[in-house]
Amino acid sequence: MIIQPSSLFATGTTAVKSPFPQVVAAAQAATSTDTVTISPAARAALAAASVGTDSSGTHSVEARLAEIKAKDGMSRTQEDWDYLFANDKKLAEITAKANQNPASLTAAEIDYEQKARGLVNTMANLSPAEKALYDKAVASGNAQAAAGIGQIAFIRTMGHTAGGADGTTYDPIATKITADNIVKYFSHSIVDPSGKTQAQFQALIEYLQNNPAS
Fold first, then answer.
1. Rounded to the nearest 5°, which phi and psi values hold at 23?
2. Domain ranges within the chain, ordered by starting residue
3. What average pLDDT does range 160-181 have in this prediction?
């Protein structure tokens, strides 16, 4: 880092408040031909102050990532995606974990990934207790039950009205995740001819019945 003495240090009666007073004092006492010796501590402080910042003092990498994440996935350019994947270390770790075993991701990791990638943030529709339930299902190796909770999180993105049994409607956001509510309400809100979703709901029903403390 190159420092212009005329812009940092005052002359005459003008006072300059610097975060590095020892460096300022040394520079003021030096002439243009003097060699200023900076202590190791001062060098470390200067380096710490300059790492990861731009000229305005803003953390440029973090600011750029925040700018990208403020856009939805469809609005991002290829340059945005390249920068995101190259600089978001947490997203890279989550992606690597998902590549090894998608069913191993926790609710918090899925939530982070959805936000970072500009996807529909389904995990935001789960309460802390429901996220804990999701994590317990994942930890127990019951990927189907965890997927059932994920389906309920998705249903809640549709708003406060969804279809239940026998043509009834209900509020999925205000409806708790219980075995009975899955049977009466949630399981009727998704039509899946493959039967995959129903299998996930059934796995979740059985998980809840076998783990009442959850």
1. -70, -40
2. 5-51, 102-210
3. 96
